[in-house]
Every structure is written in structure tokens, then in C-alpha cells.
Design brief:
The protein is of the alpha+beta class. Helix content is 32%, strand content 43%. It is flat.
């Protein structure tokens, strides 16, 4: 019998032991952690876990999650997971650095939307605590660039957009 998959989304106040307790709960139900991502921003965390297991184990995870989350002290829910990410796209990494103009994230994400380029991963960080528009800024995006989008054209658009905002970027194939 094939395994089922689900995405467990957990949020809350970060502390040592959250992943230990959550993974122990999943294991006790007969499931396993197939993949995960976590981020901590100023003491609050978000955790995405691809949970895998036989149908019965996945049913136990869904049924017992509310009680486990309350015991652990987190908010959690289970979402449907598709079989595969799919799509006829090429993986790229876009890194950008510059001054944190308030429109950088929006402008770049809007360009990706217009070009139908999926952002698969996003990480941003201000690297100083100077004034609001003088903070050095770093951004890294994982991209799934559809076959129909010429990379030369994507670079032209990025040249214009990033040039206007005085942002340096690098686009690399993975």
C-alpha cells in the first residue's frame, strides 16, 4: 500500500524541544517526517513538515493533532499535499542586495507573477539597523522558470527593474 503525504503547518512561540515533541507525535502515530522547513522570526516560528505514512497513520496524525498541538503549546493544522511539485520549469536562484527600498520585495515578486515564474523559496534579511530606507538588504529566491520564459528576457526585465531600485542581482541556474 503506497504512503500518503500531508503538509503539517505549525506556528507558535519558539522554544527548545518543539520539533522533538512534534516529530515524536508523528512517529507515535506511525508517520514520518519526509521533509521540513522552519523559520524563527523574533521568537516566533513557523514550521512546514511533509508528513508521510500509511493511510491509517495519516488518519491518526489528523485526528490527534489538535490535542498534541495544545500539549506542545503550538497552533497546527494539516493541509493536503499534492503528489509532486510538477510543471515543466527550470530551477534558478535569484540573489539581490542593496538598500532596502520598501518596494523591492513587491516589485520583484510582481515581475515573477507577470512572467508566470513561481517563487519556490524566499528569504530576505536586513543586515543593519540604520534608518528605515538606508538598511543594507539581502534577498534570495528559489525560482521555477517555465520553459516558455526566455532567460535572456528575464534578465532584461531584472536589469531594468533592479537598476531602477539600485539593487544588484545575480540569477544562476541550479
Amino acid at each position: 500500500m503506497p504512503n500518503e503525504n500531508a503538509i503539517l503547518v505549525a506556528t507558535g512561540r519558539d522554544r527548545p524541544g518543539v520539533m522533538d515533541e512534534l516529530s515524536a507525535f508523528i512517529l507515535a502515530q506511525g508517520g514520518s517526517v519526509a521533509d521540513s522547513r522552519s523559520i524563527n522570526l523574533r521568537g516566533q516560528f513557523t514550521l512546514l513538515v511533509l508528513v508521510s505514512g500509511p493511510r491509517e497513520a495519516m488518519a491518526k496524525v489528523r485526528e490527534g493533532l489538535d490535542v498534541a498541538a495544545e500539549r506542545i503549546g503550538i497552533h497546527a493544522r494539516v493541509e493536503h499535499a499534492s503528489e509532486r511539485d510538477g510543471g515543466d520549469a527550470f530551477p534558478y536562484r535569484l540573489t539581490a542586495t542593496g538598500t532596502n527600498h520598501p518596494k523591492v520585495i513587491h516589485a520583484i515578486s510582481h515581475l515573477m507573477r507577470v512572467l508566470n515564474v513561481n517563487i519556490t523559496n524566499l528569504q530576505t534579511q536586513e543586515t543593519s539597523t540604520n534608518g528605515p530606507e538606508t538598511r543594507p538588504f539581502q534577498m534570495e529566491l528559489g525560482l521555477a522558470v517555465p520553459r516558455e520564459v526566455p532567460i535572456v528576457k528575464l534578465r532584461e526585465y531584472l536589469d531594468a527593474l533592479c537598476g531602477d531600485m539600485q539593487v544588484r542581482y545575480e540569477l544562476t541556474s541550479l
